[in-house]
């Protein structure tokens, strides 16, 4: 038996290619499997107890990792964006990828992805379903607007659209051409269907958010301007364990820090890295747009939300809202490019979210940043 073995797996929906590396002898052992988790675990266990397994995060999810861990096997999932690849390496095969993963794991060069449990993954799926529904509704509205614009039909009832008045006006529009009339009515019906679907999902999200493992964190995050219960639910479930980070590292994890290329005495910073969780970053950037709006005192909705949390959390949230508004106004006064200002506010907002969520999960008193 091998004494120390590192195994890389190249995982696909219907096949898994494995490569086992014995670092004492340099011997490689390869195998290929159908979509059979039991066969994979039996093969891995054949190398003895001193074995570690790695595969890349991907669309196949975390089922294999959970199965191997349940069998007592040390399995990690690698972040694909953090894997080192030579610039001139233009050969990519399943066998080669499995070998590279095993070698990187042996060298300790694998950046691990946190494996969520089944409950957290289910909550994430609910949040992402809501996000997709929101995008579908936006596209449906765009299609209705595009048809009207192409044929010179304009709404003159004000700048705001998709209000009651605008919807009433939409149902009054008709076209003489039967094909065009059918296309317009179908697009309008699809928009209405997507709107009903989104409301149904929002209702379910609110129900689940009120009684789940992240309820306390969700209520705290919703005290910050820009976060509804739906947005707070999404951010809380995507991050999961906030105690993994600090106020300084949460922005880096979410890809909200500038990229950098420095050599010698030259230091150049570029656009943000956009690493990590795309959906969580989207939620923060979307929430950051609100902080530019006038803010003197909490509104009715914010006051209701503040009543759901402890006095210390409420005070911290109000402090964050004031600080973020001041930052957004300062950027505007300096005529900073809006997209850069919004990203900078989102980065600081991530830190404030951490300062609210991490103490709650650790069970420690709220402290300064």
Describe this structure in words.
The protein has 369 residues and is of the alpha/beta class. The protein has three domains: 5-113, Nucleotidyltransferase, domain 5, CATH 3.30.420.110; 118-209; 215-362, no CATH class. It has 13 helices and eight strands. The protein has helices spanning 37-45, 63-70, 94-107, 118-150, 164-170, 178-209, 215-221, 229-239, 250-253, 278-288, 300-306, 311-333, 338-362; strands at 5-11, 16-22, 28-33, 51-56, 74-78, 112-113, 258-263, 266-272. It has a six-stranded mixed β-sheet. A two-stranded antiparallel sheet has the order 7-8. Strand 7 (258-263) and strand 8 (266-272) form a beta hairpin. Helix 7 (215-221) runs antiparallel to helix 13 (338-362) and helix 8 packs antiparallel against helix 10 (278-288). The longest helix has 33 residues, at 118-150. It is globular. It starts with a strand and ends in a 7-residue tail after the last helix. Residues 7-149 form the Transposase IS110-like N-terminal domain.
